[in-house]
Amino acid sequence: MNITVNGDELEVRSPGLTSLLRVLRDELDVVGPKAGCEAGGCGACTVLVDGAPRRSCLTAVAAIDGAEVTTVEGLGAADDLSPVQQAFVHYYAAQCGFCTPGMVVAATHYLDSGGSDDRKEIQEALRGHVCRCTGYVKIIEAVAAARGGNFDLTTTAEGGYTTVMTGDAK
Amino acid sequence: MKAVGARLPRYDGVGHVTGQTTYVDDFRVHGMLWAKALRSPVHHAAITKLDTSRAEAVPGVHAVVTHTDVPQLEYGHLSGLGIPADEPLLAKDEVRYMGQPIALVAAEDLEAATAGVAAIEIEYEERPTLWDVREAFDSDAAVVHRWGNWYPHFEDEMDRRQIRKGDIQKAFEDADHIIQGVYRPAAIEHVPMETQVSMVVPESDGRLTIHSCTQAMYFSLGVISAHLQVPLNKLKIVGGTVGGGFGGKVDTASETITALAAMKAGRPVKWRWTREEEFLASSTRAPWHMEIIDAVTSDGWILGRKMLTLHDSGAYARFSPYGLTKHSFHHTGAYTIPHLHFDGYVVFTNRVPTTAMRGFGVTSVSFAVETHMSRIVDELGLDPYEFRLKNANRIHDTSPNRISYTDPSTVDVLQSIAGATGHDLAPAYAAATREPREGEWLPDHLVDQISTEGH
């Protein structure tokens, strides 16, 4: 079997009924997707399979032979954050960070599919993604802001500001 | 002061959103074994047979550890404070909660480890169980702990955390109303997104490197060192990234047993709990049973409080004596009551051991106290803000354990809430401050409790 992960075409040697999550983490060393419950209940393992969000813990790898898989690592890098990633940082939408890989992937799909900044619609889109730290408000704020692209990447401190991505004080 | 008032980004925010933050389960090392635990399938039983020889012969299994492998089987979470130990690292001749670890199997992969667990021969003789803290005090209650049904080792070997202040009998003689209530908040599971996990690597220099999701690294070091009888300078603990804890990762849940397996196998071992194990066997916030009886005057002064607290410690003591002590110091809430009679017990049941969760010991009593304040308001037809403001802590009032308050904020907080909710306060209450009591704020019954002596 072969799957393309974040642009790299890779051969899969695990048995076909191995979950995509186990293949990614244990065989291919792509550890962004997290094992929160491995029962489809928490959303932390969510990845895009041919553009659609899937619980990788419930997806047998044989069922997606030949597919394109995008994990949180494929959405942006520290020096090239996507709008959703920037907004999650800016709005403190990640606290412990363990649910964040799934949240970011789901939010990205929601916005790429034309989702609005309506709070209720965002809430609906992220249904099934469990966060125990932030209480969801900041996550929803971040997704709404990423839609509008209207969040300020700089902050004011005694007349200066701090960059979001590097933490440099100016 | 550049940070005050500034919107500073999280130092780990970018790592979180790009999937680059490394949690314990994200570490992989060469030669790493996976571990699986044999956990008790029953709530309370004698272990009448435990034979791991077949498990050791399962292909791929490298080590099976049980109580016989632990240098110091019992070490209490509060042993450093002189509190006796009651909990074995791995169950020996009895199990007292479902999910209690009995053995850990380390193998080439999880499938082999699971097969190893299945091959362990074990037999149980079930015993009666106890579930509710209140029932622990019934004469026909099952006895579920070798110390009896409640913790007997407070100072001077008292069986309760006791507070006596003022003259409780006079308070009840002087009262116009006696108002009582019982408050019973339930257990809460922390449900961190990251389940309990640890990875221990035996290094070539004889040290152990312990990757841990603990919230309390130095505390865990002491616990691991004591159980394994390994000096601290042979242990290196790596932590710092916790996938949610909320108090539930203060107990040293997995590291010590993983280390034991790594030492026995001579290989790195990772033990990651499933979500089912997390729900079954990880500690929870405790259930509590709290009875409050207050002596109150018709115009809304609380003269005295009798309180009985039963704290559900679960099967073992762990931090509960500490949690109950904090609870006792806060049993008047944000209010000053001069005459007190408090008895608190750490009660054993066959539930999973309970632990810290966001305000250990205090959230329960805050719930009980505020609900009771509302009960008094309802029964006497008082104004809810003015009743609270009247009894609110002021500078030089003293806590149940006779700490003189230097800067209590109760008055300000209540006035702010009244303002924010559009509740009009009578002029005297709107003008109240946190300053020391005088005039109408200093009735005779509050004179003797005042102290200006520091902490």
What features would you describe in this structure?
- The complex is a heterodimer of chains A (170) and B (455).
- Chain A is of the alpha+beta class.
- Chain A folds into 2 domains: 73 residues, Beta-grasp domain (Ubiquitin-like (UB roll), Roll), CATH 3.10.20.30; 81 residues, [2Fe-2S]-binding domain (DNA polymerase, domain 1), CATH 1.10.150.
- Helix content of chain A is 28%, strand content 16%.
- Chain A has 5 helices and 7 strands, in the order ββαβββααααββ.
- Chain A has a 5-stranded mixed sheet, covered by helices on one side.
- In chain A, a hairpin with a 2-residue loop joins strand 1 and strand 2.
- The longest helix of chain A has 13 residues.
- Chain B has 12 helices and 17 strands.
- In chain B, strands 3-5-1-13-10-11-12 form a 7-stranded mixed sheet. A 5-stranded mixed sheet of chain B has the order 7-17-16-15-8, with helices on both faces. A 3-stranded antiparallel sheet of chain B has the order 4-2-6.
- The radius of gyration of chain B is 26 Å and the shape is elongated.
- Classes of the chains: A alpha+beta (170), B alpha+beta (455).
- The interface between A and B is large, with 51 and 40 residues.
Number of domains of chain A: 2
Report low-confidence residues of chain A grouped into runs of 5 or more. Answer: 154-164
Beta-strand fraction estimate of chain A: 15-25%
CATH superfamily label of the largest domain in chain A: [2Fe-2S]-binding domain
Distance N to C terminus of chain B: 29 Å
What oligomeric state best describes the polypeptide chains here?
Answer: heterodimer
Counting H and I runs of at least 4 residues, what is the number of helices of chain B?
12
Write a concise synopsis of the structure shown:
The complex is a heterodimer of chains A (170) and B (455). Chain A has 170 residues and is α+β, with helices and mostly antiparallel strands.
Q: Which features characterize this protein?
A:
heterodimer, A: 170 residues, alpha+beta, Ubiquitin-like (UB roll), DNA polymerase, domain 1, 2 domains, five-stranded mixed sheet, B: 455 residues, Aldehyde Oxidoreductase, domain 3, Aldehyde Oxidoreductase, domain 4, seven-stranded mixed sheet, 12 helices, 24% helix, 22% strand, elongated
